[in-house]
Write a structure and sequence with these properties.
Elements lengths: L17 H4 L7 H19 L6 H11 L3 H25 L6 H18 L11 E2 L3 E2 L1 H74 L4 H88 L7 H17 L4 H58 L1
Antiparallel strand pairs: 1-2
Helix pairs in contact: 2-6, 3-7, 4-6, 4-7, 4-9, 5-6, 5-7, 5-9, 6-7, 7-8, 7-9
Length: about 400
């Protein structure tokens, strides 16, 4: 059907290679030129210092500590971000509760209630409507069941709206995390560009000094250039992890939006279709009751109104025609509920696919964070050694 509900979960976040991370964020050309000039000036200052002096050691330390605070800040944001998909998956497995699992559970409860109120169940058997035509007792039981289930449906709708509010709050928090992560990534990007410029400037200086002072060139290469390239690698690695985290946050936000739309559809289309079907069936049953009462009255008074027998016969024919045309159409009700089942099955399928895709994201993030942890520990040990 063209009106079928289709929820498509976003694809899992792909891993971000470290070598591509440095080019993922925009950097103004003038800022790049400024960083290149800063790197050239630092290389000139370093080349003019005696490699055996404390000042040289301090300069090398400045290189190794470059961007450490930004690396730690972005790592903290990534850790907070990682807790979100882990918590969501744990909730989906019954280990916790959040907005996503609350919505999912209430959608399941709504689907079960809709199935229980399926009018097809009221058409089985050979009972007579109001004691005169088939299905009467079962339809009365069906309407009574709907009335008793109305409060339960209202509770489910309120719970769905509450879960939807939680998803909206979660998305607002995610936007804040994304803004913080973007700020950290911007600073990491600048440090990565600065490290690349320092690499080129030092390489050029070392080649020049090597012609006249082999010992100094060796010291610059083993201490300064090694530190620059090591730091450059650390910056790119953390930038790649942060970029993946940013993409994962956006994936979670999109999943939440799909769930929010699913709640809107469930609380409007599904409930409206159910109430319309029940209202129409009840109205038709009431009309049939009135028609049957009129027919019975006409039958008992027919001997008293012989003068109007022809009129009564014509009117009775019209009433019977009208009665036949207003019989409860259970096929239409069944078709309406088949459409409802299709809608709910689509929502169930969406949740299952979304959980699998989020699991892939969590695994990818865990690998990247484990990779970044080695470099963060190395930076921390370097800080402790210098402080000692």
């Amino acid at each position: 059907m063209s009106n079928d509900l289709v929820l498509t979960p976003p694809a899992p976040v792909a891993a971000v290679p470290a070598e591509k991370a440095a080019t993922m964020l925009p950097l103004p050309a003038e800022r790049g030129t400024e960083l290149a000039q800063k790197a050239a000036g630092f290389a000139d200052e370093l080349a003019a210092i005696d490699p055996r002096s404390p000042e040289f050691t301090k300069k090398v330390h400045d290189i190794s500590s470059m961007g450490d605070s930004e690396i730690r800040a972005s790592s903290q944001v990534a850790n907070r971000m990682l807790k979100r998909p882990v918590a969501a998956l744990a909730s989906a497995k019954g280990e916790g509760a959040d907005g996503q699992v609350q919505v999912a559970n209430q959608l399941v409860a709504l689907r079960r209630t809709i199935v229980d109120l399926d009018p097809k169940q009221a058409t089985s058997g050979t009972r007579r409507l109001l004691g005169l035509i088939p299905f009467g007792d079962r339809l009365r039981d069906y309407f009574a069941k709907y009335q008793s289930a109305q409060k339960h449906i209202d509770d489910i709708i309120r719970a769905l709206k509450s879960g939807q509010d939680e998803l909206l709050k979660d998305n607002a928090a995610i936007e804040g995390e994304k803004a913080n992560l973007w700020e950290s990534m911007t600073k990491l990007q600048e440090y990565a560009v600065l490290a690349a410029a320092l690499d080129s400037a030092l390489e050029q200086k070392i080649n020049e000094i090597e012609l006249t002072d082999q010992e100094k060139a060796t010291a610059l290469r083993s201490d300064a250039l090694f530190g620059v390239r090591q730091k450059h690698q650390d910056l790119l690695t953390q930038l790649a992890v942060s970029a993946q985290g940013y993409l994962a946050l956006d994936l979670i936000r999109k999943n939440n939006l799909e769930l929010i739309k699913g709640v809107d559809r469930a609380t409007t289309t599904t409930i409206s279709a159910l109430r319309t079907a029940v209202t129409v069936a009840q109205a038709l049953a009431n009309q049939k009751l009135v028609l049957d009462q009129i027919s019975a009255l006409n039958a008992t008074t027919s001997d008293l109104i012989l003068a109007t027998s022809e009129m009564l016969r014509t009117q009775a024919g019209q009433i019977q025609t009208q009665a036949a045309s207003t019989t409860v159409d259970m096929d239409a009700l069944r078709k309406a509920f088949d459409n409802i089942y299709s809608t709910m099955d689509m929502i169930d399928s969406f949740k299952a696919k979304a959980v699998e895709n989020m699991a892939v994201t969590v695994d990818s993030l865990t690998v990247e964070l484990d990779h970044a942890k080695t470099y963060l520990e190395r930076a921390r040990r370097g800080d402790e050694a210098i402080g000692a």
